[in-house]
Amino acid sequence: MLAGIRTVELRKVYTSPPPVAAGGGGFSFRAPGGKSKQPKPQITALDGISLEIRPGEIFCLLGPNGAGKSTTVGILTTRVRPTSGQAFIGEHDVWLNQVAVKRLIGVVGQRPNLDFNLTAREILTFHGAYFGLPHHERMKRAEALLERFKLTDRADQMVRGFSGGMMQRLSIARAMVHDPQVLFLDEPSAGLDPQTRLLLWEIVREYNQTGKTILLTTHNMEEADTLCQRLAIIDHGRVIALGTPRELKASVPGGFLLQLRFGLHSGEFLERLQKLSGVREVRVTDGVGADVYADRGGSLIPEVAHLASASGVELHDVHISEPSLENLFLHHTGRSLRE
């Protein structure tokens, strides 16, 4: 049975006491009994996220660090309890049917959590045993996965000597041993070399072609554009854009983004810039910069330079980018995915 993913108004608010100041300096105000009167801080990680991920789909959550991607995955994989809202894997409510959900999912976290006292083969076969696979079946699957992830020559070595890329490959292989219907990959390509990243993308596509649902979080825009059939861009715990990569790139005003830097500029100059043919939108980024969204890229530069010269504005730098997911993100949030 194919399984999709659904969330309904998911919210998660973290509360934690402030750190104790080193050295004991400063003042603190405490109620009788020694309890502080200061309220606990509240950090809203998710602010009402609703998603419908179809069975058999590769879906991406794209956003900067701290946007809420990992918290969403944590809730869907039973590791984080939501403050409110609901989450479903297939027909199962994640928090009402945790055992059933865990049988349907495979999870790869941001950092490998392998047992360094085991060999690669033992890690895979032990994981298969945990999910009740017969001995012959788990040995067969382990062998096939070791071969597919190019780990056969290191299969009987302890993983403490593995490189970061090898550990990540083994972590993904482990998540696939019990053939889960839904595979969660939390920033799987972070820190990987280009060859390993391409191998990972190939394996993810192959697994998806067997009908499996894959939810992948990333802040790598190339990965989202290349691999995912649909994606949601999230920031500050909210969905700010949803659709296919092509749809989202086409929604950027004009498509092209010209990032300009000047010595100084004036409001009058920006108004004249806005009136150039093909310019859709001009946004001031700081006292010496502006983002120009336009229907054309390179052909617009001579006109910008001429206008700057005629206005007595010194043009210091120009950067042109074609329609991309990063342009979309910058348009919605005004900040880079890499912050």
Task: Tell me what the structure shows.
There is one protein chain. The protein has 339 residues and is an alpha/beta fold. The protein folds into two domains: 5-15 and 42-249, Rossmann fold (3-Layer(aba) Sandwich), CATH 3.40.50.300; 253-322, Alpha-Beta Plaits, CATH 3.30.70.1340. Helices cover 32% and strands 27% of the residues. The protein contains eleven helices and 14 strands. It has helices spanning 69-76, 98-104, 120-130, 135-148, 164-176, 194-209, 221-227, 245-250, 267-274, 301-310, 325-333; strands at residues 5-15, 42-53, 58-62, 84-89, 92-93, 105-108, 182-186, 213-218, 230-235, 238-243, 256-262, 279-286, 289-294, 315-321. The strands form three sheets. The chain has a six-stranded mixed β-sheet with strand order 6-7-8-3-9-10, with helices on both faces. Strand 12 and strand 13 form a beta hairpin. Helix 3 (120-130) crosses helix 4 (135-148) and helix 3 (120-130) packs parallel to helix 5 (164-176). The longest helix has 16 residues, at 194-209. The radius of gyration is 25 Å and the shape is elongated. The two termini are 40 Å apart. The model is unreliable at 17-29 (pLDDT under 50).
Outline:
With 339 residues, this protein is α/β, with parallel strands linked by helices. It is 32% helix and 27% strand.
**In this structure, how is the largest beta sheet organized?**
6 strands, mixed
- Rounded mean pLDDT score: 86
The CATH topology label of the largest domain is Rossmann fold
Q: How far apart, in Å, are the first and last alpha carbons?
A: 40 Å
Bin the helical content. Answer: 25-40%
- Rg estimate, integer Å: 25 Å
Taking pLDDT < 50 over at least 5 consecutive residues as the criterion, the unreliable ranges are 17-29
**If strands are numbered along the chain, what order do they take across the biggest sheet?**
6-7-8-3-9-10
- In percent terms, what proportion of residues is strand? 25-35%
Q: What is the string of helix and strand elements?
A: EEEHEEHEHHHEHEHEEHEHEEHEH
Q: How large is the count of helical segments?
A: 11
Structural class label: alpha/beta
Given the C-alpha coordinates, what overall shape results? Answer: elongated
